[in-house]
Amino acid sequence: MCGIVAYVGQREALPIIIKGLKRLEYRGYDSAGVALLNSDGLNVYKKKGKVSDLEEHLLDQKNLKSHIGIGHTRWATHGEPNDRNAHPHYSQSENLALIHNGIIENYASIKQDLLNKGYTFNSDTDSEVFIQFIEDIKKNANCTLEEAVRLALHKVVGAYAIVIMSKEDPNLLIAARKGSPLVIGVGENEHFLASDATPIIEYTNQVVYLDDFQIAIIRDNKLQLKNIENVENTPYIHKLEMELEAIEKGGFEHFMLKEIYEQPKSIADCLRGRLDAKSGRVVLGGLRDYMNKFEHADRIVILACGTSWHAGLVAEYLFEEFARVPVEVEYASEFRYRNPVIREGDFVIAISQSGETADTLAAIELAKSKGAIIFGVCNVVGSSIPRATHAGSYTHAGPEIGVASTKAFTAQISVLTMMALMLGHRRGTITESNYMMLLNELEQIPSKVEKALKSAKLIEEISAKFKDARNFLYLGRGYNFPVALEGALKLKEISYIHAEGYPAAEMKHGPIALIDEEMPVVFIATKDSSYEKVVSNIQEVKARKGKVIAVVTEGDHDVKNMVDHVIEIPDTHEAFVPLLSVVPLQLLSYYIAVMRGCNVDQPRNLAKSVTVE
User: How many domains in the chain?
Assistant: First the structure.
């Protein structure tokens, strides 16, 4: 959840750390802090609020020059957001400082042991316990800091990405990870550490992704990697493909709006090199070695959370229609806490934008232990899920900075659609002519999304009429039911308006009791196999004086004449409608949130990457 930045080298550390924290603020913005080491000693500066609040606090400080430092932006887990719970945390002697992303599950017992030894604590966090524990081991075992960290990691239970600096060694940073991401940028006589690559790409495109149970020791500008058993590992340097422009707003007011408008490109990038409608070819390289198991799978199980779970629901319709394979879509957060039936013939698809979702990673490990083949669908190259799965496909959506996921959703559906079509074709459950038609239609989706975005001004005007609503209802059938769920989630996430998504037919089984003149109801009423049924549901709402906003197929005058507001999208095959129908709902939530004065890129209580359970 939290954002980590650290630097050691020849440059001034503070400007690099502050800029990096701003780029990572989407990971947490409850508080922020830095630790710097110079002639005045090891000093920690931290403040509740955003990085800008920390910057203001630093204006009153003296001697901030340093060539080594660590920084952190927090999403609160243990302890409320305030100055004292902000990171970095000192050890008892103030000779060590630590930043930490993750949760130490057995911190309470460790803390009690330290309290019995006379230690005192200045925060409510598990992270302060962590650094106190490391110092206690170092003192009692009379060992080096590196060895104390290694011994501590053997005893803590939970997830962590940590970076530690020491007053006694002004050229040393020690980092480690388990279950939380950590990237090391390798420059010329300098090193950068961060939760992801966004703070690094301005300075170097050479990075090392730490693996679980790896410890990085950076001393005198040399990088050494060891595992938790003290065995040295050879660093594998990856070249970043990310461009600096991709993580800037590019003239848009918010990252979310930029990412909504990037969807024609992100979908096209996802399809590029994989789909050739003219030759009837779909190629997903990640499936090559597992195609036989995929083709003969008895069942497909999809694991995901949040928006990715909604993409998985769309995939359920796709796989069952085109490949005739039974599909189960599971909340990863629930999957591991029951006794799921997973067999060796099952093919498990794990979906995650960040590739770091803790619940999904835990579900993957459980499914792997039962003999299933695990296929990952992720956006972030080098993240944990691609390394934990047998195979996978990247969505190539580019960096997504806005906390509320938009382009990741359509990119995930694009990959899953290609998988379903490929599987159906190989299994012979799609006729050749239908297969060619579907590929041709899928290839046109980016241009149709571009056209759907041209309704933005109309959607902004509609948003102004409903910005003060207290509740929303989203209804759809078939492929559009998951889109209704996603539309409701987007509104909840960024505008704080209560919203629910339902299958339109389920409205009569309870939610219709909510309909009155104050209730806006969003229908996805495109011309598909459920069209007549949805029209009937619209009439039921209008009979009860509900306010209806309808997303319809371009040129549909019938629905237009019976509802309050219409948003048109281009016509396409009903299996691909979610790639278009979700776009107006993203814009609707965006404009409503902006009009309500909400911070759409950093909504309260949320962080982009859920790396804790």
Answer: 3
